[in-house]
């Protein structure tokens, strides 16, 4: 039996470091305005892990939280970030049980493919819908 892969991740300034044990149980793209604002981009890529899979190994004292209560669902979510460089680190929805982080923080190359898009009604018109069908290999 093979061991689960450990991914190493850090913020922009590398003062906050954490590991992810194993694969995310879900990987999605979110188009909600809040996620776009936090990401500073057209969408946010969100990898969902169980709390036991996430371990902060350095810089815990630099992690600050923002309680985002202005959400489409009305539920408050916790958005954690590095207080030194501002990198978004984690999102924790109300109720616990899920820690969301972002592939851009991970040192290793990941092969994850998003399985869903959330809040498509807020997708920018120039961002194409993701096709979730598996790509077929060419037969030569």
From TrEMBL:
Source organism superkingdom: Eukaryota
Matching entries from Gene3D superfamilies are given as: glutathione-dependent formaldehyde- activating enzyme (gfa) (3.90.1590.10)
Domain (CENP-V/GFA) ranges: 7-140
* Coiled coil (residue ranges): none
* Alphabetized InterPro entries for the sequence: CENP-V/GFA, Mss4-like_sf
Which one of the record's GO molecular function terms can you name? metal ion binding
Task: Give the family, as the similarity comment puts it.
Answer: Belongs to the Gfa family.
The name under which this protein is listed is CENP-V/GFA domain-containing protein
Q: Which organism is it from?
A: Galerina marginata (strain CBS 339.88)
């Amino acid at each position: 039996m093979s061991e689960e892969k450990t991914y190493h991740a850090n913020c922009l300034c590398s003062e906050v470091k954490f590991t992810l044990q194993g694969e995310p149980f879900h990987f999605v793209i979110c188009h909600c305005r809040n996620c776009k604002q936090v990401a500073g981009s057209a969408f946010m890529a969100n990898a969902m892990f169980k709390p036991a899979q996430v371990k902060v190994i350095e810089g815990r004292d630099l992690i600050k939280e923002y309680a985002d209560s202005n959400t489409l669902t009305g539920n408050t979510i916790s958005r954690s970030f590095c207080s030194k460089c501002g990198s978004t680190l984690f999102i924790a929805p109300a109720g616990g049980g899920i820690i969301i982080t972002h592939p851009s923080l991970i040192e290793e190359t990941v092969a994850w493919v998003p399985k869903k898009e959330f809040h498509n009604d807020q997708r920018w018109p120039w961002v194409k819908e993701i096709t979730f069908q598996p790509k077929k290999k060419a037969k030569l």
